[in-house]
Amino acid sequence: MAASETSPNGQSAVPAHVLVINDTPEILALFRDLLEEQGYRVTVDQFAGDVGDKLRDIAQAGPDLIVLDFIIGGEPIGWQLLQALRMDRQTAGIPVVVCTAARKLVEELEGHLDQLAIGVVLKPFDIDHLLEEVARALARYRHERRDVPTG
Fold first, then answer.
1. Is the confidence at residue 1, as pLDDT, over 50?
2. pLDDT at 140
3. Quick one: which of 56, 118, 120, 130 has its CA closest to 93?
4. Options 3.30.1450.10, 2.60.40.10, 3.40.50.300, 3.40.50.2300; CATH of 13-145
5. 128-143 pLDDT, tens digit each
6. Which side of the chain, N or C, has fewer Cβ within a 10 Å radius?
7. What is the pLDDT of residue 62?
8. Residue 4 class from Cβ within 10 Å (0-12 exposed, 13-18 middle, 19+ buried)?
9. Is residue 148 predicted with pLDDT exceeding 90?
């Protein structure tokens, strides 16, 4: 069960919580179906409003991973949200997979996205590629959390 956290005794525990942020209801429904079939706990968010409000919502929800579109309402709101996520201590460590049709923007930001360990899936996307990116981001996140010394 790759979608679940593993308890110390090796048994599957709580499923990983994936937050999907997009402005298209059909895309949100598709992501919910795909990710729930894989055993993830999925929350979908049809983004509307303010980046600051959304940042607070995300901090409260505490997802294990965010799947984020860069272009929301025809504007690069997702890119702005990603920047805000990385600059906030509560959300900076949450892994993000960008799923977008904004190929040119992704190409311009490629080095920066790589540096931030942001997974990228370009639309139209291959379902297996999306699922691989989600699993890879969650695995990297779990590995990094294990390597962090506790107080």
1. no
2. 85
3. 118
4. 3.40.50.2300
5. 999 999 999 999 877 6
6. C
7. 95
8. middle
9. no
Question: Collapsing DSSP states into helix, strand and coil, what is residue 52?
Answer: helix
Element (H, E) at 34: helix 25-37
What are the sequence ranges of the domains in the chain?
13-145
The owner of tokens 């509307």 is 48
Q: What is the pLDDT of residue 14?
A: 86
- Nearest Cα neighbor of 32 from 42, 22, 18, 45 is 42
Sheet arrangement for strand 65-68: 41-46, 17-22, 65-68, 96-100, 119-122
Cβ neighbours of residue 99 under 8 Å, at least 6 residues apart?
22, 67, 68, 69, 120, 121, 122, 123, 125, 130
**And the tokens for 23?**
């402005």
Task: Please report where in the chains the tokens 């980046």 appear, as a residue.
Answer: 51
CA-based nearest residue to 41, from 32, 28, 53: 32
